[in-house]
């Protein structure tokens, strides 16, 4: 049976207040045997959230209660479904030391986690590339071209893979083509095949996994998985494990995109 390795929770400031029980019951109704709650980890100390609502992650003072709540849910559903305690950790260029310290402090509580890139650094400024089409348009004004944003994204993604974040560094790389979230409004002239293959090669060499994320199908300006089918096929040929993730921010989003995702007959994890 398929695992959903990327699920958010009521602890997400930009999600819904659906309860953990609602997420688990939805997972059971879809036939999942294993799920991972991977809430956005608190942003590193000293980093200022560039989003307008400052709502990219849970707060550090919520983390203990988050762990307690997932432990409670594990007890309730013991024997019915495997539930993993996890986080989606942001890799942020220039904050590697702070991220490593965070993981060293809290990594022992984690069963499963994701390392993602949402924030890009350009000329000393940080932007959240997937916040909104308006935000991406503002980045475009600064970068000059969509291609420049894509190059920065894939370079940062490579940095995240190679970065030393300590023994608790997540080994699944989140939605590796998230930069394409607004591609129908801000198209690029090439596929960035070389850059994507460099990312896959780095993931393979590191023996990491890929978050095969179905959320892009529900985004009106994307309409494809993160990564798209050809990338998933290349990863599969290379022997890279792809773990399905709904990236659900409300319980009804569990399973999103799954029916449209294939690996040429190979099962998803």
TrEMBL record:
It is an enzyme of class 3 (hydrolase). Its EC number is 3.1.3.15. Gene3D superfamilies: Metal-dependent hydrolases (3.20.20.140). It comes from the Bacteria. GO terms for molecular function: histidinol-phosphatase activity. Keywords: Amino-acid biosynthesis, Histidine biosynthesis, Hydrolase. The lineage of its organism: Bacteria, Bacillati, Bacillota, Bacilli, Bacillales. SUPFAM superfamilies: PHP domain-like (SSF89550). Belongs to the PHP hydrolase family. HisK subfamily. PANTHER family: HISTIDINOL PHOSPHATASE-RELATED, HISTIDINOL-PHOSPHATASE. Pfam families: PHP. Pathway: Amino-acid biosynthesis; L-histidine biosynthesis; L-histidine from 5-phospho-alpha-D-ribose 1-diphosphate: step 8/9. Residues 4-213 form the PHP domain. The keyword Hydrolase applies. NCBIfam families: hisJ_fam, PRK08123.1. It catalyses: L-histidinol phosphate + H2O = L-histidinol + phosphate. This is Histidinol-phosphatase.
């Amino acid at each position: 049976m398929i695992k959903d390795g990327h699920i958010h929770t009521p602890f997400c400031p930009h999600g819904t207040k659906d309860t953990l029980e609602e997420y688990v019951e939805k997972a059971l109704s879809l036939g999942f045997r294993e799920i991972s709650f991977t809430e956005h980890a608190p942003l590193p100390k000293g980093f200022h959230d560039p989003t307008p609502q400052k709502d990219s992650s849970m707060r550090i003072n919520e983390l203990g209660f988050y762990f307690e709540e997932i432990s409670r849910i594990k007890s309730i559903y013991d024997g019915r479904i495997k539930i993993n305690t996890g986080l989606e950790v942001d890799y942020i260029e220039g904050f590697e030391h702070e991220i490593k310290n965070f993981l060293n402090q809290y990594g022992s509580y984690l069963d499963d986690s994701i390392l993602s890139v949402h924030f890009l650094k350009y000329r000393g400024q940080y932007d959240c590339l997937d916040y909104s089409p308006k935000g991406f348009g503002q980045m475009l004004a600064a970068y000059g071209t969509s291609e420049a944003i894509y190059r920065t994204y894939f370079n940062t993604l490579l940095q995240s893979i190679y970065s030393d974040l300590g023994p608790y560094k997540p080994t699944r790389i989140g939605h590796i083509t998230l930069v394409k979230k607004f591609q129908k409004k801000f198209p690029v002239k090439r596929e960035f095949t070389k850059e994507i293959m460099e990312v896959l090669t780095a993931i393979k060499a590191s023996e990491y996994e890929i978050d095969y994320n179905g959320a892009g199908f529900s985004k009106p300006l994307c309409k494809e998985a993160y990564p798209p089918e050809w990338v998933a096929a290349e990863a599969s040929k290379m022997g890279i494990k792809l773990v399905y993730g709904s990236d659900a921010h409300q319980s009804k989003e569990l399973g999103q995109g799954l029916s449209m995702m294939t690996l040429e007959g190979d099962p998803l994890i």
